[in-house]
Specification:
This protein has 288 residues and is mainly alpha-helical. The protein contains eleven helices and three strands, in the order H-H-H-H-H-H-H-H-E-E-E-H-H-H.
């Protein structure tokens, strides 16, 4: 009797391993073209999603943090996972045939959620729901959507930068996004639209939200405040570049200059520190 039970357990484990293997092969085979597209979107010189390479590792680390809870969770299987897998593959096929790559990218997350439901069960999937959902930040959104937001974002940032110039007292003439200074001219180009900051800060903000004990509405307010704050910080960055152009010349503030990249890093650090401070304040307020 014990031999039969042991054999049944071994068979069950063998089937489980085979299912993992088959679904892994299907995932790689189906989404290999999508991986190539993601690499192309991440590695571009003016990519808004260069952080995408890090997102899977962050997601894996978030799952690792839940290891104790997962260790005490009973594994099961949900047939609804198969339906979700089929839905994900259907969406992927639609995206490939229609050359709508971002649909294929988002369908990967759906595929992984379906695998979790089918192979691990609803209890485990519920625990790792946020780490799986966090993979959304590795999926580039359509360029048309980015461009729709980028123009008003750049316009507001430029206005903020020029208000700062007014306060400092540096004369200029504005011709759209072309700022004529005394000894140089600076053009607010596409890299200065603030979208890179908005997207990266939203990804960071989502992490901070999971680590704070604040109420739901405070978390929502925190996330909602990220885009306008990012735009304001981008305005500060443009003002810094205008000051550099005013003092050291147009070449010093050009995209090829290390000062151009350095100003972006400084603004990112400032934004990161602000998020830490606000998150800490929210956490302490909740505890009190």
């Amino acid at each position: 009797m014990q031999v039969a039970e042991a054999r049944e357990i071994l068979c069950a484990r063998y089937r489980q391993v085979m299912l993992w293997f088959i679904l892994t092969i299907v995932f790689i085979a189906c989404y290999y073209p999508t991986f190539q597209w993601l690499d192309f979107k991440y590695s571009g010189d003016e990519s808004y999603f260069s952080h995408g390479y890090l997102i899977p590792f962050v997601s894996a680390y978030l799952i690792y943090l839940k290891r104790d809870e997962l260790a005490h969770t009973v594994l099961s299987s949900s047939s609804s996972g198969l339906l979700i897998i089929l839905l994900a593959i259907s969406a992927h096929v639609f995206g490939v045939l229609g050359y709508i790559n971002f649909i294929s990218a988002f369908s990967m997350i759906l595929f992984l959620a379906g695998c979790s439901l089918y192979l691990l069960g609803s209890a485990v999937t519920r625990i790792i729901a946020f780490p799986l959902s966090y993979l959304v930040f590795m999926c580039p959104v359509p360029d048309n959507f980015i461009n729709l937001i980028a123009l008003p974002s750049k316009s507001i940032s430029t206005t903020i930068a020029l208000k700062i110039m007014d306060v400092i007292g540096i004369p200029y003439i504005q011709e759209g996004f072309r700022i004529v200074l005394i000894h140089s001219t600076y053009i607010v180009g596409a890299p200065c639209n603030g979208m890179r900051s908005i997207i990266s800060f939203l990804a960071l903000g989502a992490l901070f939200v999971t680590m704070t004990r604040a109420s739901f509405w405070k978390k929502s307010l925190f996330l909602a405040a990220i885009p306008p704050v990012a735009i304001a910080l981008n305005g500060v960055r443009i003002a810094i570049l205008l000051l550099i152009a005013h003092k050291y010349g147009q070449a010093a503030a050009s995209p090829e200059s290390y000062l151009h990249d350095g100003s972006g890093l400084v603004v990112f650090v400032i934004g990161f520190i602000l998020m830490i401070v606000v998150n800490r304040f929210m956490h302490e307020d909740k505890k009190s």
